[in-house]
Amino acid sequence: MGHALQFTDHNSLKVFLRTMVVADNKTGKDLSPLSELITAGNIKIPSTTGIFNMGSATDCPSKAMGFCQAVVKGKSVCYAKKAEVAYRPDVLPFRRRQEEYWKNTSAERFATDFIMLNMFKARRPFNALRFNESGDFWSQECVDKAERIASILKRYGVTCYCYTSRKDLDFSHCHNLVVHGSGFKHEGMRGTFLMVLNKKDRPSGFGICKGSCKECKRCLVGRNTIIIRH
Questions:
Q1: Looking at residue 36, what DSSP letter applies?
Q2: CB atoms < 10 A from the CB of 73, how many?
Q3: How far is Cα 181 from Cα 186, in angstroms, rounded to an integer?
Q4: What crossing angle do the helices spanning 107-119 and 140-154 adopt, rounded to 10°?
Q5: What long-range pairs does 199-208 form, CB within 8 A, spacing at least 24?
Q6: Which of 14, 26, 152, 208 has the highest local Cβ count within 10 Å?
Q7: pLDDT tens-digit series, residues 5-19
Q8: Domain range for 84
């Protein structure tokens, strides 16, 4: 998974990053591959949240394994897949470039690239990172890697969170990565995110998704939430 950079603390990482910038006479954006691979929010998510996908909805492992919850009467209602259509030709190739970077980069390198990008973000730096607007964890190694990234970025005030349909993986060691199970909850997960047809199907103890993360922080802190299918 690429070369792993080792740092004893976050101050040494800061020094390393600034040294790179001075040596190359470049900005953090120039030096960080993630500048071209992380999007700053979307219609629902604020621009202070970076979004990075381990893969596309088209290639999603949860879909292939039959774990995906966004299926009604055998038909996919996945919001992410709806974006990967012919009239939006750039979306699928972009997510596959994200996948290539993910699979060939260590947790330490990912965190370094993210922090480098964030340090030189002139306005509104990222305070959160969402994994997998599309796709899901490919393997247990990906869960472990995301947890390692979350543990590093937490020192810089960045919360990492995600949703997953991978019922077969172990999340018990996820102390920094905020994980929501799609319709289930395993040890180590903070909450369950459940798609329902209408409000009357809301289980006890579940809040309702407002449809805008600009107004709500439920998923950042990890609370049981339903979303009305639309």
A1: G
A2: 5
A3: 7
A4: 40
A5: 199/228, 201/226, 202/226
A6: 152
A7: 455 455 665 566 555
A8: 10-183
Asked whether residue 107 is assigned to any structural domain, the reply reads yes
5: left (phi over 0), alpha (psi -120 to 50) or beta: beta
The Cα–Cα gap between 221 and 103 comes to 27
Confidence of residue 211 (pLDDT cuts 50, 70, 90): low
> Is residue 28 included in any domain, yes or no?
yes
Highest mean predicted confidence (pLDDT) among 7-21, 59-73, 146-160: 146-160
Looking at residue 58, the DSSP 8-state letter turns out to be: T
H and E: helices and strands count for the chain: 8, 10
**Cβ atoms of 148 and 114 closer than 8 Å:** no
Dist. CA 213–CA 45, nearest whole Å: 5
C-alpha span between 55 and 14 (Å, rounded): 29
Task: Kindly state whether residue 188 falls inside one of the protein's structural domains.
Answer: no
Under the banding of pLDDT at 50, 70 and 90, the label for residue 81 is confident
Contact 91, 42 (CB under 8 A): no
CA 25/CA 198 separation, integer angstroms = 55
- The count of domains in the chain is 1
Residue 43 inside a domain? The answer is yes
